[in-house]
Sequence to fold (229 residues):
Amino acid sequence: MTTDIDVVIPTLNASASLARTLAALGGVDCPFSLSVTVCDGGSHDDTTAIARDAGALVVTTEASRGRQLAAGAIAGSAPWLLFLHADTALGSGWTDAVHGFRSDTANDVRAGYFRLRLASPDPRARRVERLAAWRCRRLGLPYGDQGLLMARAFYHRLGGFRALPLMEDVEFARRIGRRNLVELEADAVTSARRYERDGWLLRPMRNLSCLTLFFAGVPTTVIRRLYGS
Fold:
């Protein structure tokens, strides 16, 4: 059976969230076929067992998100790729949004991303979501927790993900270009753990600081220490 979309999920000790992410992919009727590749960076928990139990292919590589995404992409051969974080579950209507995007041949040289929704009832989460929407619309910088859908041929034309420990999503989005990024009419429901742990003001400020340092040319190995886990 031919697969239409390869879903690539980088993981590292993601057992707390991965089952939910995979369930959102498998619990709906799709007008297309999916295969799932979990590219693990050396987890010490049940991440790989959860992935295999869900029928995903598991690939192991060095713990570097950019390297993991690149390795996961080459593990499959479907004409389309969907990159997704392990703590992100796609919301209702995502299959229609993906199907509509794929059906338009103009999108063969574009990439789609989902609207960010944080899994928290806190009103401050809505503020973060609005800031993310502004960042995507005005700067063309969707983050990896919003997913990324694109034709495999376009992915290879751009050179794929760089082997970066973080900021691989920002670096890749800049190569895609703001005019070639399209918001999909569905949500990417993402864990709010970092915001709840670090603070609804401090965490966005830390993210902005990391982004500024990246644009200033600071090595990602240095930025990673500021970003935290």
Q: What stands out?
A: The mean pLDDT is 95. The chain has one domain: 5-198. The longest helix spans residues 123-139. Residues 101 and 107 are 7 Å apart (CA to CA).
